[in-house]
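**User:** You know discrete backbone vocabularies at least as well as I do. Would you mind producing a protein record, from residues through to fold? Write it directly below this note and I will take it from there.

**Assistant:**
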Amino acid sequence: MSKNTVTITDNRTGNTVECPVLEGTYGAPVIQVGNLYKELGMFTLDPGYGVTGSCRSAITYLDGEQGVLMHRGYPIEQLAEKSSFLEVAYLLIHGELPNAQESADWDHAIKMHGMTHEHLHRFYSGYRYDAHPMSVLTGVVGAVASFYHDGMDVYDPEERLTTARRIIGKMPNLVSKIYRYQSGLPFVYPDNSKTYVENFMAMMFSWPTEPYELNPMAVRALELLLILHADHEQNASTSTVRLAGSAESNPFACVAAGVVTLWGKSHGGANEAVIHMLEEIGDAKNIQKFIDRAKDKDDPFRLMGFGHRVYKNHDPRATIIRKACHDLLDEMNVNQPMFEIAMELERIALEDDYFIQRKLYPNVDFYSGLIYQALNIPTSMFTPMFALARSAGWIAQWMEMMGDEDFRIGRPRQLYVGAQQRDYVPIEDRD
């Protein structure tokens, strides 16, 4: 019997199966249970897939116990300090940081895919002016698939790379048009003289009647948010993109599936929920009342932006973004009452034994919404901003999966707990 195995015994029959133990670069070992059904006639049950690995990946590693997040081996702290969003996107997709020429070529390629087909403009007008931006983004990203469908070979590495450039290049255009349409403003075309983030901000906020002046601090703050949200291992939306991709779906449709999943308030919508919570609190003097509600097991209220499904001590992204939030608000001299409430809420909660014992620390969502607000991005646009950033990770994960020789269509199993077989009764004979 190999030492690198785990033996599972069916105590009802005495039958056993020897399962290989796989070791990754970091993290807990993984038991490969592929032969479990063949040998013992059983499946595993893991609601929410909390202890189930769905794939091998070399893109992102996180350690929730130690508060570690790395992309391709590079700590998020270093990338946040020294890198740009486009460079991080290149890293996620290619596996290495680019040299000067590769960086220039990558930047050029992304800019060349920044435009969208003019016919797509009509798609926006099909939505109510007050539709939630995530519903619009779901539709327009899916609609882009119609322009890149016939002849697309998802097994061709070059076509996959072209697709990645298209998605990353077009997302700022697609997202900004949602804001422009709902604000009654004309669409703004990309300007290839600007950086990726500068271009997005100009497409969002510029007016055709006057020059648009960029605030370097605001540009850097938004760049930082995009970096921090670029990828986060096998979360709900990323897993959805992979699952859709495993059926050989159009990659734009796969990204649209990721957008739908990200929309949930327990996922990408969490920073929007934080702002709504702070607005509900209204004043720092009300904080203790809401903390008491959060501690009351009979009260459904909970503090948004505290705790994390994976991070059990601290979210490394929150540490980075907290400083950025302070710096931005100080630099821009923003009168932001929500920030004061947030700071006081953080202080009180982190001094309370209830939150300390449960390790409910502020996560990245707690501060990101405050920065978006300071940048005059409407609350309803927070999650589309998240999607803009995460599209880099989604397409990197999709590319990795499609290039994996062992990949196959996803097909989770279930524990059936419904009715036993029974005969159909005609309606006239039913009680």
Observations:
- The chain is about 50% helix and 5% strand.
- The radius of gyration is 24 Å.
